């Protein structure tokens, strides 16, 4: 089984003690490709070092997370733009709007998202969206920026069926992670009505570990738990889910550099 983790912070401090062993466990679980979203200027070194050490398995993205958007977000976005011009990245991200912890920076978060959507269009890159308690605000900005070329994923999707349908109409994919395995996650009401071709699998590690590891540190080796749950909800074979989501992720993020063709 070949799985692709479309969203994993495997460069995180939390993996410092055992990063090599953790990435090996991922390989042994069939997770051969891992896409790594950036957070902010403090995470770039670890992100790029991880990719340099594991160029076959780990692919970097570049962007600014909404929880890192403060007063001086413009300076951070210059750095993102600078990196995007310097070398290839799989996507712009993660970016978006997060009103869960703090709502005081909503205008700045909206402006940072607008700018990053423009960067994605300019660089012809997909965009990885983070949205928490802010689906409406995020979808409105994506709708406004959609010129027919913008594509990407609403990562860690946990919304309603109507929201899932809106994402699909926007030409975007749904990133499905550990929430699908939670008893009260709500995705059992959504996924049976959504086509497999619209889904990517993700861990969002070290966060959001799937059941039965809920609350503990998450890692890509747990991705098969998500794949099995998605297969169950869709009434499909887990092999088919693994193959389809891997193909969809590679079509979205792959840059034809040979990495995506590995068997
Ligand atoms: Zn993330």
Describe this structure in words.
There is one protein chain. The protein is globular. The protein has a five-stranded parallel beta sheet with strand order 4-5-6-7-8. It has helices spanning 19-28, 44-53, 73-86, 106-122, 135-145, 161-169, 223-234, 238-253; strands at residues 3-5, 31-36, 58-60, 92-98, 127-132, 152-154, 172-176, 199-201. The protein has one domain (3-258): Metal-dependent hydrolases (TIM Barrel, Alpha-Beta Barrel), CATH 3.20.20. The model is unreliable at 256-263 (pLDDT under 50). The protein is of the alpha/beta class. Strand 1 (3-5), helix 1 (19-28) and strand 2 form a beta-alpha-beta unit. Bound molecules: zinc ion.
Query: What are the bound molecules?
Result: zinc ion
The number of helical segments is: 8
* Biggest sheet descriptor: 5 strands, parallel
Q: Quick one: overall form? A: globular
What is the CATH architecture descriptor? Alpha-Beta Barrel
Please tell me the total number of domains.
1
Strand content: 5-15%
CATH class term? Alpha Beta
Q: How far from one another are the termini? A: 10 Å
Strand order of the biggest β-sheet: 4-5-6-7-8
Q: What is the CATH T-level topology?
A: TIM Barrel
Give the uncertain stretches in residue-range form. 256-263
Radius of gyration: 17 Å
Helix content: 25-40%
Beta strand count: 8
| Protein structure class | alpha/beta
Q: Write the CATH homologous superfamily.
A: Metal-dependent hydrolases
Q: What is the H-and-E element order?
A: EHEHEHEHEHEHEEHH
Give the overall pLDDT as a whole number: 95
